[in-house]
Amino acid sequence: MVSVEEIRWAEGLIPIIGPDAVTDIISSVSDVALVISTSGHIMQVMANPNFSACKAVMAWADSQIHDTLTVESVPKFDMRLKSFIEGDGSKLATELNHQSTEYYSELPMRYTFHSTGQSGSVLMLGTDLSTVADMQQQLIAAQIALENDYEVQREHDVRFRVLLEASSTATVIVSVKTGTIVACNAATEKLFGERRDTLVDSVFARVFDELGEVDILDRLVFAATERSTLPVVGELVHRNRRLALSPILFRGAESQMLLCKIKTLGKSDTTADQMVARLLEFYQHGVDGMVFVDSTGNIISANDSFPRLADVTHIPSIKGRSLAEFFLRGSIDLNVMLENARRTGCMRLYATKLVSEHGTERPVEISTTQLNSDGKFIYGLVIRDSRRIDNSRTPTKKIRDVDTQSVIELIGGQSLKDIVSKTTDVVEQICIESAVEMTGNNRVAAAEMLGLSRQSLYVKLHKFGLISKT
Length: 470
Fold this sequence. Notes:
Elements lengths: L3 H10 L5 H11 L2 E6 L4 E6 L6 H5 L14 H13 L8 E5 L8 E9 L5 E8 L1 H37 L3 E6 L5 E4 L1 H7 L3 H4 L16 H11 L5 E4 L6 E10 L4 E10 L5 H15 L3 E5 L5 E4 L2 H6 L20 H14 L1 E10 L5 E13 L2 E10 L1 H6 L6 H12 L5 H23 L4 H8 L3 H10 L7
Antiparallel strand pairs: 1-2, 1-5, 3-4, 4-5, 6-7, 6-10, 8-9, 9-10, 11-12, 11-15, 13-14, 14-15
């Protein structure tokens, strides 16, 4: 309920505001203000100075509003103007689009219609909807892109399922994170003897009889990471079947996935296939560390036992590193083994110490074999922890134990300088003999091991009469 005092206050307020001030107020509260006739002729235009299309809008003065509107907006304007003139009392706004000009593309506006108090004229207050329209266009574009992505995804999904079902080879996709089967084909159902709805979302390793320390999933990830061409061998639980699994590792939406193609290893398989499968299983489960290096000594691959010897957490972290980093004498040890393998094809039981990532030393014995891989020479090393062997061997007499009595007998008869000189020669001769023996009579490797030049080693061999022995 409006009181009489409020009505009088409002009636008395308007005459106080001058015509120029009214124009400013109207242009401030709206982006555009149009005074039009009932026939649509624009009699006056007011625009907010901050409005981006202010100059273009001011040019509408003394023109027909129909000439500024797009085709689809003309009927909407006529209908709204007619209903306002007929006095339906509706205060609803209407949205109209103005034609593009050199200043802007289509200009969307929301107009409200108001009486001016003079017959034959109508006040239209407009608000710019360009920002809203741009947002709507972005949402529409995003919706279209999303629907296109869905279509592409559905198409890929159909292709994947058709390809999976068309394959006569048992194929499963396993999540590395959860170890469960994500998808499989009809051939897998037949091989495992279970329905697909039972297999999907079940743990993949449950169908295998794994007695070793390494889980079937870890072996598959290892083989896929190493990009091995040899399959992983597993045995089905209660079905007395040996299977060859060829894994491919790829990145899924949430985690890594394994695509595994599975074949049965039966009696009909050739002896060569069975031997390959056995050798691969021996490599994967072997208790001794096995490492393959290139001609420069960089690690190509290693089995699971080598990281345990070297205290390495993940096998991929050592790929590409030099094997010399794990030896006590570094490149000296590595060069001795590789050089002997190059000359004779192999080197047996080279004794040294392996240094772990944390600095722990352990004695090892290493056998090295030269292999031809696609026309390039690589080297396979079998590294065995020799701590138990060293403990079980009969300890040899040390130099100081053998020669202590002889040294004591020299005291008094010779000076300390002469005694030290003679004992130094004994130690030097033993070191040179040991280095030559350890390197398989390779003088270059022996000189590098002793930190001597080749010429100095040759002189010392002459000195101790070791030339004939080498």
